[in-house]
Amino acid sequence: MVFLSLQTLKPSILLPCWPNNQLMNASVVHFIDRLPKTETHLHIEGALPWPLLKQINPVKFSGTPSFRKPNFRYDSFEQFETILIDHALGFFSSPESYFDAARAIFENHLKQNVKYVETSFHAGMIEYLKIPGEEILKAIVAAIPAGLEVRVFLGISRNLYTENLAPQLEQAITSWPDLAGIDLHGLETLPMESWTAPFWRRAKDCGKMVKAHAGEFGPAENVLHAIEELGVQRIQHGTKSIESREVMRVVKDHEVTFDMCPISNFKLRVIEDWEDHPLPLFLQENIACTVSTDDPLSFNNSLSEEYQVCHEKLGLGLPELAQLAQNGFMNANLSRELKDFWVHEIENVLKEFTKDSW
Q1: Active site residue: 118, 134, 188, 216, which one?
Q2: What domains does the chain contain, in order, with CATH numbers?
Q3: Among 95, 127, 217, 226, which is least packed by CB within 10 angstroms?
Q4: Helices (H) and strands (E) in the chain — how many of each?
Q5: Nearest CA to 151 among 159, 140, 162, 167?
Q6: What is the pTM assigned to this prediction?
């Protein structure tokens, strides 16, 4: 295993010569606001808006819990998962609850100038709530507002192809027209079971998009397996790919995109320090990356803040931020005309903000 050096390979980024930091920050925030953006790594249960919890229990959820405070970092993935599940299960109980959450989530996207979203709901909720998964899917789709394109995925944990759930998973990829695709979820410490690769192939044959969470807490080899065995070109996270030059080569050869979530990576201690985050290196290596929020219920983050972190903590300049936004559209499930339109719009915003400052 070869670890690449972020210190020696970090890209040289030319930042604008603003008169002072306050003006620089205000201008960057305005630039981010103006950027048409995508969100391509979002768990709908983990995106439950806090105000909706306050509505159902104003006393219990009146304040800001410790895990949503700015300096909080989780001790372990298990702690993160326990807190998220405890809160999500207090709200999600029916297709109507998914509609309410999705409507609030998507409205917030519109406020941030987001034009395209890929979100997943967890297959385990079908079993837990004892309601047909397609009803959850239809509720989410019904909440999509005008002006926002949304694609809904079914998140399937590595150990969820159970006797009860397997028939419903098969039905999902063959008979749910509103389902855009599937995404591999779950602890990377769990073994990859024999059903997974054939199921992912069947989903692709049915015209579904396929993704996989890999290389977050697990090693770079998990990314390699997802690409070569599951046939995905979209990796959720992929952070640990930096551990292996061979994996980096395969990622580039297969033109794989990493849908990354820097704030999540920091708060979950996937990276210990901001300078350890590989996103700048991935961009230098011409690996397509996007940025998303992952689970804003747990991290109290917004997509605009993810872009701000990329600038303030990872040193990305405006062209790199624009590239992240363009990558989202270039990998979106949209017509070529719409992709080209939004890429051109991003180019225009970049020109507007850089013509007098670079």
Answers
A1: 216
A2: 6-354 (3.20.20.140)
A3: 127
A4: 17, 8
A5: 140
A6: 0.92
